[in-house]
Amino acid sequence: MFSNFCGIKIQGKCFQGEVKLKFFEKEYHRFCLIYGKNGSGKSTISQAFDTVKQNNQLLIVSQIIDKSGAAVDLTNEDQKKNIFVFNEEYVNSKVKIKDNGLDAIVLLGDAANIDKKLKKAKRISKKLEGRQSKYQEEFQKYNDKQNTDNPEKYENDIVLNLKSNFAEREKNILGNTNRNLQNKTIELAKNIIDHFETDVSTDELKNNFDDKFKSYKDIRSNLNFTEEIKQLNFEDIKQLLLYQLEQKQLTPKEEEIKQAIAEADHVITKNIMESDKDICPYCFQKLTNEYKKEILSSLETIFNPNIRNHQRNLENKKQEIQNSLNSLKNLPDMDKLDKDLFDTIKMKIDNCQTEVTEKLNQKIQNPFIALNLDVNFDSLVDELNQNLEQLEKKRQTFMAQKARANELKQELEKLNNQIAYCEIKDDFNHYKEKLKAKQTLDSNREHNDKRLECITSKISKLNAQNKQINIAQDKINEYLKYIFFKEGRLELCEPNDQKQYVLKSNGNRVKAKNISTGERNTIALSYFFTEIFKGENSEEFYKKPKFIVIDDPISSFDFENKVGIMSFLNYQIHKIMTGCNKSKMIILTHDLMSAFDIQKIISNLPKIEFYDERESKNKKDVIFMQKELKDQKLVDFGKNYSEYKNLLDGIYDYANNSVSENANIGNNMRKVLEAFGTFNYQCGIEDIVRDKTIVANLSPEQQAYFENLMYRLVLHGESHAMDKTKTLDFFSCISESEKQNTAKDILSLLYLLNKAHLQKYLQKEQVEKIEQWVGNCRISNNRIN
Questions:
Q1: pTM over 0.85
Q2: DSSP 249
Q3: What is the 3-state secondary structure of 637-694?
Q4: C-alpha to C-alpha distance for 528 and 89, rounded to whole angstroms
Q5: What single DSSP character describes residue 369?
Q6: What sections of the sequence does the record tag as coiled-coil (predicted)?
Q7: Domain span including residue 291
Q8: 39-72, pLDDT tens digit by residue?
Q9: CA 187 – CA 193 distance, rounded (Å)
Q10: Residue 564 and residue 483 in contact, taking contact as beta carbons nearer than 8 Å
Q11: How many domains is the chain built from?
Q12: What is the DSSP string of 596-608?
């Protein structure tokens, strides 16, 4: 599953450019120990693997790479599921210890995350509830319509003003005292404010209104005479009356036919003659073609179509003139324009209408004669047209006056709106201001209520999720017992109803503040390994492939638990590495002593046996790699440990008179001091005894003495990284015995600062000897000068 996982391609945080790091060079390499100083990028590497698993680091881009450096496509979700990362982010997100009354409550995994979310949600909820109460209290003022902060007060004042002042002027303009005033609303006020702004004073506007209204009142009218009154013309009627049709002389036979069909319809006869019938359906006479043609010709002569057309024209003209004259007589409201004149016109129209109608009827009866209208008809028409002309002039005068009235009306309506603008503008400005404040408050209240509803729902869901969480309590307690080598030293008790685990130390209640950071990290590491094997039975714990990354399993806070944690890691590393030959592990640490301890652990892992084709024989090799992260590169780390230990052994032997002379002893002492300062305190030789934190446990006399010693070493000496050609230094100027005493002083300083450090590198007898040197230290004699 992880055979092609050889390294990682990473960019982000301290890796500004893209970097490829290979942790497993050979196919059989399955464990990688990485030592790196703080700030070298170890945490970023662990976060990069976390990004591969769950894409939770926004500032890091990373990909697993194979042996060739090509990216490995993690399409298999099972691969991601079996990648496990332990780092500071894991501890902070997965383990939370808080007080609940007299007890310390431990929240693990999702419970810790849920508790964090719950705490945040409840904090937000409390804040929102406070706002809700504040908004409700502020909203009370809007229930009082007379409150000066309520926009309804100003709206009511505006509408009342419009219904009285504005509406009164409007009624005067329209001349309608019964006009409905319900349309005087705030919408009308908005229209007035938007479109009738003016800088003219109210008094000036009112005076202007009164002057124009006086003129308007004298000329206004509801009458309207839009239709032009035209004069009459009867020339076309005269021509129709004078028109004569030609009358043909009928033969005796045509007279007979005419008499025969007088009582019948000549059209029926015509249809019979034009049909294919051989016998007449009325007289049963035989009908020949010659006879039919003769009858049709006679009908044509008797019933001339020109006569019928002329008669129709006369009928149409008669109807047309009657309609026209009737329409003229019935013009609406003309009697209000000039009653006497209009009565005269109607009388003369009646006379004309009578004369014309009689003559047209005569003409229709006898279209072959020419008729003339009465000799006085033209005089009558002239008089009528004169009267119509007089009426038209009166109409035009009236309409011109009405147009002026309409102009005045429009001017008055504009003035009314401008006066209203002046009357309501102050109230309207207050209305807008208070309405905006109310709307803002209402919007904030509504938004707050929705947020409160959402956060309340979220709290309910989180509480429900919290009750469904189960952890391997027994397994965690088993691991804690293993680490502390004591049952009950630190244990999780049975969970309460909220799935909260009470933490006890040595069977006693304990407060959260009394739980050390080291103890918290121990709980986190124990929980981490229960998560790795979650859902698996005990027989399969170590048989399935896992890819595990652990960053700084032992922190600076874990000194008291260091032996137990290292023992626990030894147990887990061997179980994982031997349980499944496809599992892989990477452990990163900034602590040199921890790195050396893990070196010892992995050196006991079984070696892999393989056939070397190049040498044609079976060989064995370790399955682990040891690297130091330096300058964003992985360099060999193992030999540094041997070199440092050899230097310590050499200095001890020289100080103990085991060797007579060592030409490089001065440089070796400086190398050891520099390595000790760098690995343990990230400082140079001269700062080891200057840093008050480092020498806090030394007496003032010891501090002064060793500061003097370091000054001489630095001033007259050289760093192992400096030019090796320099030979004239402090050590070349003192005797052999003084050199040996200086070696004892340096080992004594290391012992005083970090006894465990020397215990890791030197034999028990050697450490006991150094302890004697510390007791006999030459501080009071001040022999270095």
A1: no
A2: P
A3: CHHHHHHHHHHHHHHHHHHCCCCCCCCCHHHHHHHHHHHHHHHHHCCCHHHHCCCCCC
A4: 12
A5: S
A6: 111-184, 374-425
A7: 249-303
A8: 899 999 999 998 888 877 678 899 999 999 899 8
A9: 10
A10: yes
A11: 4
A12: HHHHHHHHTSPPE
